[in-house]
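Q: Got a minute? One more chain.
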Amino acid sequence: MARYLLAASPIPGHALPMLGIGAELVRRGHDVRLLTGAEFGALAVARGMRAVTLPGGVAASGSPDTRPGLVQRWRTGRAELLSVFVAPLVAQYAALRTELEREAAAAVLVDLAFTGALPLLLAGRPRPAVLVCGVGPLTVSSRDTAPFGAGWRPRAGARYSRMTWFTHRVLLREVRIRLDAALRAAGVAAAPVFLTDWPLLADRLLQLTVPAFEYRRRDLPDSVVFTGPLPVDDGMADWEPVPVRERRIRVHVTQGTWNNGDPGQLIVPTLAGLADRGDLEVIATTGRAQRLPIGTPGNARVVDFCSYAGLLPTVDVMVTNGGYGGVHAALAHGVPLVVAGGCADKPEVAARVAHFGVGVDLRTARPTGRQVAAAVDRVLTTPSYRQAAARVAGAIAATRPYDAIEQTLAEYAGLGPRPVTAVSHDDSPFRSTEEFL
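A: Always. Here it is, folded:
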């Protein structure tokens, strides 16, 4: 048995996977504490963990789910990096350090947005092993991919080093300045890498996907471990699919677990666009208790939550705003996708859906009903989408994510400080900024 400390940002798409990991580690006989927001404490205790609550003021705030133009996208991305990753850093670090001083841990596992672990890595003092859980698309820079946040699919033969340098040093300069200020406030030196590369400073980055759904990087660091996505957690709801007398096409629509307060973005257009279709049935999940501004069409059912383990094996197409966990849940069942999302990492998820041919990226967070219906028909009538989704499903089925996570934690449990070996990918390839411009 080992004693582990898990820490998660109080964002559902980040905290819930960490809850699943913690619960499985407990089931396997380990002692687990989970440091996260108070709203997840009861779930942690119910699953056998000891819950530790982050102090007030460290919750991350979301942005409106829109798909703006490129310039506005960088502005929105900058605001999200500052609010989700930088603003909570000092308070997260204080809470993390307090917990480690109160009780030692063999290893610390944090989610991608829990940058409170960064001062622990840079302090130069004895520490337990620190591992990062990649609950969203891989953010690390590469000469083979556009800088994270652009939402651009990589082009064969393209080199993105210059674009990455300009993005990190010029477009997102404020992020670097604010991050270094936060690190100084935490009592450590400036970060040797840009914010999105910070997981490379950890001992391992456990990425919750398969290579079949992540861009190929020839310069991928050895510290990145693809574990596969976590299995669908069926303990969150008890809904079972409604049996139908005749087999109909089943479409599932969801706006995920974060920034889902406006069903007019995707749920309402999907219901309206498919309302007159007697050949299909629409199952909509709102992710929260709320009333829709329209009546429920006769071929639809609207619920707050549902059992994905019960639903997804019956689904033909999933319409989603691009949540990383939900997309992987669909792909694990070979379900092709229609994606419409704009905030946070959703454009990156949507780009991967299009790149690997497992669905359609609508390239907007607010599609019309006609756009959704056309995309659903395109997926249903183009066999390559389901074939590509089946290939990814096969890759996922070959993984054992909990085994990989436990084995990696055990490998590093009890190790002392390790040298920082991460390499910055945004050292200037130019003699001057003017050369780039």
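A: The two ends are 56 Å apart (CA to CA).
Q: Perfect, thanks.
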